[in-house]
């Protein structure tokens, strides 16, 4: 997968050299480049923002540098990337969207700052590439950089070969519309607290049932919305009884 990120703070992306994303970059699974938006400015101050039309607080990112930046990644002769623009007004970022993005050959991220990017940049980009505004949640960040780091973590771990054990992907929260059951490791007793007996029993059938029951109970307590959205077909008789 190819990923390009445009930001006025390229330094934010230093962590992308670490851990499994760093390895995916080193072995070529992920071809990632970070670009400074200011390299597409032409004035001595390298200006990227201006006051909002209509008045109001804060500054808005000017369209010219963004337009030139996006032109550089979408030349007419090539298949354009999918443009992702972090925004608190975007569609919620979910595991389903992470799967969708993991299937794309080329993602381009545009990191807004201040009060965001002039709307015409997105409207113009939409005439030549797919554009999705994505929200991390119902709160407001300083800029899109942290949102891109989050989105990239979720997407990259879905790429074939990136996770050491691909089985993790099928056994985790949100893989089947449920939260994962609690996990334990050694020692069996710690500060007077025991690991549930069933997990030490070696009985795989009982363990699977216990994990399923815990996942259903946890989801019901913490995320009743997820339980309501579950496909009834995905429930077995013992789930319903529980
Ligand atoms: N004026 C904007 C609004 O009210 O919708 C908020 C701008 S915010 C201060 C600056 C930038 O941070 C946004 O352009 C976006 O890139 C990023 N951002 C802020 N909150 C976000 C969120 N919840 N999800 C994704 N990106 C966010």
UniProtKB/TrEMBL annotation:
Belongs to the RNA methyltransferase TrmD family. SUPFAM superfamilies: alpha/beta knot. S-adenosyl-L-methionine binds at residues 112, 136-141. HAMAP family: TrmD. GO terms for cellular component: cytosol. GO terms for biological process: tRNA N1-guanine methylation. PANTHER family: TRNA (GUANINE-N(1)-)-METHYLTRANSFERASE. GO terms for molecular function: tRNA (guanine(37)-N1)-methyltransferase activity. Residues 1-227 form the tRNA methyltransferase TRMD/TRM10-type domain. Keywords: Cytoplasm, Methyltransferase, S-adenosyl-L-methionine, Transferase, tRNA processing. CDD domains: TrmD-like (cd18080). It comes from the Bacteria. Its EC number is 2.1.1.228. Homodimer. This is tRNA (guanine-N(1)-)-methyltransferase.
